[in-house]
Amino acid sequence: MNLLRIALKSARFRRTNLLLTVFTIAISVTLLLGVDKIRKESKSSLLNTVSQTDLIVGARSSPTNLLLYSVFRIGNATNNVTWETYESIAAREEVAWTVPISLGDSHRGFRVMGTTSDYFDFYQYGNGRPLVLSSGEEFVGVYDTVLGADVANELGYAIGDEIIISHGLVSVDFADHDDKPFTVVGILNKTGTPVDRTVHVSLAGIEAIHIDWNEGGRSAVTLTAEQALKLDLTPTSITAFLVGLENRAQTFRVQRSINDFSGEPMSAILPGATLAEFWRTISAIEQVLFVISGFVLVVGLLGMLTTILSTLNERRREIAVLRSIGARASHVVSLILLETLMVVIAGCVAGVGLLYGLLLLARPIVVRRSGVDLAITWLDSTQLLIMGGVVLGAALVALIPGIIAYRRSIQDGLALKV
Amino acid sequence: MTSSPQPVISLEAIRFRWPGQSVDLIDIDELSLKPGEHLFVRGASGSGKTTLLNLLAGVHAPTDGVVRLLGTDLADLSASRRDQFRADHLGVIFQQFNLLPYLTALENVTLSCAFSDRKSKRAGEGQDITSTARSLLDALNLAGSLHDAPVNKLSVGQQQRVAVARALIGGPEILIADEPTSALDADNRDRFMDLLFREAEAQHCTLVFVSHDPQLADRFDHQISLRSVNDDMDPAQATGVAL
Hints:
The complex is a heterodimer. By secondary structure, chain A is an alpha+beta fold. Chain A folds into 2 domains: 176 residues, no CATH class; 215 residues, no CATH class. Chain A contains 14 helices and 16 strands. In chain A, strands 1, 3, 4, 7, 8, 9, 10, 11, 15 and 16 form a 10-stranded mixed β-sheet that branches. In chain A, a hairpin with a 3-residue loop joins strand 5 and strand 6. In chain B, helix 3 packs across helix 4 and helix 3 crosses helix 5. Chain B is globular, with a radius of gyration of 18 Å. Chain B has 8 helices and 10 strands. The interface between A and B is medium-sized, with 26 and 34 residues.
């Protein structure tokens, strides 16, 4: 009978205590791996807010600012891009497609975005996932609107409902475009991106509601919705536009030529790179979370130490018996270490099991509520490293009871303290 | 039993005191046991009986003097070699709680061989270790149905007999018993002593038996008595007298 078998049988004999310890370790490991998973998922979700778009172009500003207002609808553009400039860039032969964006109005706290039907064809998020309508269809008429999932859900809108768009970002009664209501014609599926919180209308719609407005207020002449339709609704400017290129290799060249564009000052950014930069500034929160779950693990290991130390007293006889039949003091230490390793490894395995169980359970709920599709993948190298660290930490912690048992077994000799 | 010139146990001018103590707990001038001879150590609790056993087993080193087992001076061995020596040449029986509660009676007996190649080789001669363990348990009147029972299903008397089998398997030259009968009633005690002697003789084993019960002393060739430190503060409280 070797030491491992003795350790196994001894552990089985004291299983209630040890199982509780395994459970504690399992929960700490689940928490630690779970936080790591959430961190990675939120990172990839953020980085995939917009995909397959090669460049985002807007008036000259910092890349983060341009990204924030064009993709996340946070903050405002410093300036607009003229329609002529947009058309000239869209007509370049390297450019495969463009999606213009016109921002500035809102509806009950949600941003209104003017765009074209190209938006539904070319805007992609996640791993190249297109926008899908959960009901209705894309806008066709000037006064049609397609709502993001959260907008429809939170405000309780359905196809056919009429909504009033407010001028600017704060809803004030006198600044409502209440003379030109929009009709909900489509509602998008949940994406987990800012698209969910956006009210989409056509560029012509944006133009129509502002046609009888001057800077900041209504003009003296008012036009009805029908009258507006008879006018030329081509916009004079847009806020920004997304660009897809024929050939990705040309990205930097096109970016440079837009940045150097002589007609008006513009910035072209690579969404992926800017998103990654943006992530770095906000990832501190995730790191704090990670540190906290690290502390939870330390508490778990200390709990294990307490359990093992408390079993040392009841194991005193067992150790004296083993010593009497010739077990060396080093055997005693190995026995304690083996037991600790068994507990920790069982805890890690149970923790990983718990994590995957929770992921499987949470997956449909998370997709429904946030649109983030949790990828169920094998443990990656960081997670394996975390578990290796847990096992190593536990082995180090186990040296404490090991050394105590060693010294005690030398001191006790063959005497049995009954 | 052929008498060998080399004693199994030989103690020369042994003194032992714990660090910080002012008087010797153990003070034995000379003691020598030849193969097959048995020693009875009498003393009340606190008289240093257990300490003497620890010295004999090589768990503790004497403050002064030489402990020689089978011609080997224990002081010449490293701590782990002494542990190995104990595993190979000694069998130990305690007062109580001799057995690992998570093993069966049979597993407790064969466990002795786990730490000693010598014992497993000797126990495995002619038959396998398990069969040797079973015949030992049979010889100690432990019914076959109990061999594979968890030890906490056994009575105290049965447990002590399993402990004897564990101490004897693999033919150690020295058997050390620390008040093994204290938890037994008179009837059980006598039967236990009979079996212990019979099996020790069968294996040509030298028995060192510690007890406070003077009734058992008659069975032994040699006796020493340790006087309690608590009873008597005479610095020469322990005397080793080979009778």
